[in-house]
Amino acid sequence: MQEWYQIADVAALDTPALVVYPARVAHNLALLTSHVDDPGRLRPHIKTHKSREAVQLTLAAGITKFKCATIAEAELLGSCQVPDVLLAYQPVGPKARRLLALLQQYPRTRFSCLIDDYEAACQLNELAQAAQQQVPVFIDLNVGMNRTGLAPAAALGLYQQCQALPHLTVVGLHAYDGHLRDEDLAVRTARCHQAFAPVAALAEQLRALGVAPVIVAGGTPTFPVHAARPEVECSPGTFIYWDGGYGQAFAEQPFLPAALVLSRVVSQPTATTLCLDLGHKAIAPESPLDKRVTFLNAPELRPIGHSEEHLVVEAGPGHGYRVGDVLYGLPHHICPTVALYAQAVAIENHHLAGEWPTAARDRVLTV
Asked: Which GO terms describe its molecular function (predicted)?
């Protein structure tokens, strides 16, 4: 009996390779939508997959709002005729001009972006005026990640300043809490409520002033918490492919692994070790060596060395592996792993079924 991940015609596939299982992607999307009262409250991030095919499946699931981190990702979404795209980045320098170019090139898509600095807002306003465009913006809030954004208590002033800029339309608030990764859901929930409380207080201030802000909050780890807030748009990303790290840390979320990396044994340097063609350029290497990949059909293999083109693993005495054997690897961190591949190979009913180009891994598409 075949395991779900096995590929009948794997001999035709060179390695290392990224493979994706569309039926599992569709399952994860259906599971996501089942956790909210309205799919209009979903704004998934495309940083994990960066592909047109995954966007199309997401649209087919009834999701019309998306989030992205790069101009290339935003352009990919525009080319897919996505109705609503949030660039979760403050555009400065050439990025601001490129965003304005997207507004002109894809008028059917409503593009918005983040702002946390008044000078940057003024520069964007000037560019929008010159282009005769109106740019929707979200005020970016720092809720503890300390990466971007303003403290919520200090954000009211910027919100009002941006409201006065004639070519910006302030839509609402953005609060990403990616630092909340506690494996205990109760602890993660309590910390999420604590981080969100100042955001809720700011939103209440704005409502008292006659403004009804849209709130975009969270990622995959805090999705279960924010999904219960009727006033929040949720923006998970990793859920769509899932990975070993999230599967271990967030067991309460039953998403399925939907993308793997395939590798072959290319050498047996000693009686107990194997060398695989899964180097730094084929699997995200930022995690500790023991948390980069788990082989579904060889879970006992233990990584002991990693370089640009090779992964050395300890197999133990009398292991039985041979040069040429195929290993199915579950990445610990799927998002940067996907960006290492120009395309993913789709697997349907255990067979190769075309390619999903990782189109938005490029920094520039046309704009």
From this structure: D-serine ammonia-lyase activity
pLDDT in tens, 318-344: 999 999 999 999 999 999 999 999 999
Q: Please, are residues 338 and 49 in contact by the beta-carbon 8 Å criterion?
A: yes
Q: What is the pLDDT of residues 120-147, one digit of tens each?
A: 999 999 999 999 999 999 999 999 999 9
Extract the tokens encoding 334: 């799927």
Question: Dihedral, CA atoms, 111, 113, 118, 123, nearest 10 degrees?
Answer: -50
Q: What is the C-alpha separation between 173 and 199, in angstroms, rounded? A: 8
Closest of 131, 283, 141, 263 to residue 206, by C-alpha: 141
- Residue 2 confidence (pLDDT): 85
CA distances to 1, 99, 124, 127, 322 from 93, rounded to whole Å, are 56, 11, 9, 11, 53
Show the domains of the chain with their CATH numbers.
10-17+258-361 (2.40.37.20), 22-242 (3.20.20.10)
d(CA 222, CA 256): 17
Q: Say which residues have a Cβ less than 8 Å from residue 285's Cβ, sequence separation at least 6.
A: 292, 306
DSSP annotation string for 22-54? HHHHHHHHHHHHHTSS-GGGB--B-TTT--HHH
pLDDT value at residue 134 = 98
**pLDDT lower than 50: segments of the chain:** none
Q: How far is CA 198 from the centre of its chain?
A: 25
Please list, in sequence order, all residues whose beta carbon lies within 8 angstroms of the beta carbon of residue 320, skipping any fewer than 6 positions away: none
How does 198-225 read in b/e, with b if 16+ C-beta sit within 10 Å?
A: bbbebbebbeeeeeebbbbbbbbbbbbb
First CA to last CA distance, the chain: 49
Tell me the two tokens of residue 14: 């060179």
pLDDT at residue 161, as a whole number: 98
Tell whether pTM > 0.85.
yes
Helix (H/G/I), strand (E/B), else coil: 233: strand
